[in-house]
Amino acid sequence: MAFCVLSPGFARITANMNITLNGEKKEVPGNLTVLGLLEFIKIQSQRVAVELNLEIVKKDQYGMTALKEGDSLEVVSFMAGGS
Amino acid sequence: MADDKLIIAGIEFSSRLWVGTGKYKDFTETKRAIEASGTDVVTVAVRRVNITDKSKENLLDYIDPKKYKILPNTAGCYTAKDAIRTAMLAAEAGITKLVKLEVLGDEKTLFPDNEATLEAAKVLVKEGLIVLPYMSDDPIMAKKLVDIGCPAVMPLAAPIGSGLGIRNPYNIRIIMETVKVPVVVDAGVGTASDVALAMELGCDAVLLNTAIAGAKDPIAMAEAMKYGVLAGRLAYKAGRIPKKLYATASSPLEGMIGS
Fold first, then answer.
1. Residue B76 and residue B124: Cα distance in Å, rounded?
2. pLDDT in tens, B85-128
3. From the CB of residue B23, how many other CB atoms can be counted at a distance below 10 Å?
4. Which residues contact B128 (CB under 8 A, 6 or more apart)?
5. Could you tell me whether strands B130-135 and B154-155 are parallel, antiparallel, or unpaired per DSSP bridges?
6. Chain B environment of A49 (Cβ under 8 Å)
7. ipTM of this complex
8. Does the distance separating the beta carbons of A77 and B46 come in below 8 Å?
9. Other C-beta atoms within 10 Å of B145: how many?
10. Closest-CA residue in chain A for B154?
11. Phi/psi zone of residue B153: left (φ > 0), alpha (ψ -120 to 50 degrees), beta?
């Protein structure tokens, strides 16, 4: 889960890629890790939790988990909410 | 009352009033109401981060996790699968292993789906979470949830947000006699007397949100709830007099004039 095998078409490494982020399609730089994505969308990583293709990504793995075309991510945080 | 601590799974709670953070006008009001309530436990929802509008303030800027125990909930989940995902994400956020497990069965009543709640609780307990389940006021369900490792149960007083108060105090009492873990009445209380009644019954704590947030003056109601819990708990510990059909005079009959 942690590492993604780069596709043979290595030109794609720097090209943009399409991911689904919190249910919305988004085009992002092609060589991002989870940490890179959070920085790209300017979200502080301390207070969030991340799910990549339905698997939770541990915080200490953010910088090592590479994203690839078609990935689906959920980035959640604590919000106001009741009982 | 200083030694009257509530302890769940080794965690010491200084307040028996637990408060939700939803439905307030803004975070300032949330903060003031929570302070007025005297609570040390606040529930929060787990939701997608707003990617497009990051100008929005974060609740945790107002509610300091060092000062309050954060109790993430799985509110809004209608399947065990969604509740498990949500709870696991909440735990991964790194603030707490506590989770208020809530698997709803119906949008109109927001009654819990007890079967799905039990299923999700089994998984989450195995994952090492401290699972506090929202459940019907059903003693059999309470026993099942405790048997699989829930360190407390949270039966509803009435439907979430209804303000009806404890609809079945007898069931709540049977739950308390059935399980040997803390019982937290969760949802449906409307005013201070409702929480006092819950505490007089012997419940260990009350969790509420709408009764404070929806009051005309949430800050004043938060304070009222604080005293409701304190009064009810004190009355429970004090031991009330039995109910009798006929009068018993409080004043001496001796020495009355004209006798």
1. 17
2. 999 999 998 899 999 999 999 999 999 999 999 999 999 999 99
3. 17
4. B97
5. parallel
6. 46, 89-90, 92-94
7. 0.87
8. yes
9. 28
10. A83
11. beta
Per-residue DSSP letter, A12: G
pTM to 2 decimal places: 0.90
Instruction: Report CA Rg, chain B.
Output: 20
- Of B32-36, B51-55, B76-80, B207-211, where does mean pLDDT reach its minimum? B51-55
Cα(B123)–Cα(B211) distance, integer angstroms? 32
3-state secondary structure chain B: CCCCCEEECCEEECCCEEEECCCCCCHHHHHHHHHHHCCCEEEEEEEECCCCCCCCCCHHHCCCCCCCEEEEECCCCCCHHHHHHHHHHHHHCCCCCEEEECCECCCCCCCECHHHHHHHHHHHHHCCCEEEEEECCCHHHHHHHHHCCCCCEEECCCCCCCCCCCCCHHHHHHHHHHCCCCEEEECCCCCHHHHHHHHHHCCCEEEECHHHHCCCCHHHHHHHHHHHHHHHHHHHHHCCCCCCCCCCCCCCCCCCCCC
Using an 8 Å Cβ cutoff, are A83 and B73 in contact? yes
Q: Which of A74, A72, A69, A79 is nearest to A7 (CA)?
A: A69
What are the structure tokens assigned to A74, written together?
């959920």
Q: What residues of B are in contact with residue A43 (Cβ under 8 Å)?
A: 49, 51, 54
Residue of B nearest to A20 (CA): B51
Instruction: Just list the catalytic residues of B.
Output: 100
A47: DSSP letter: T
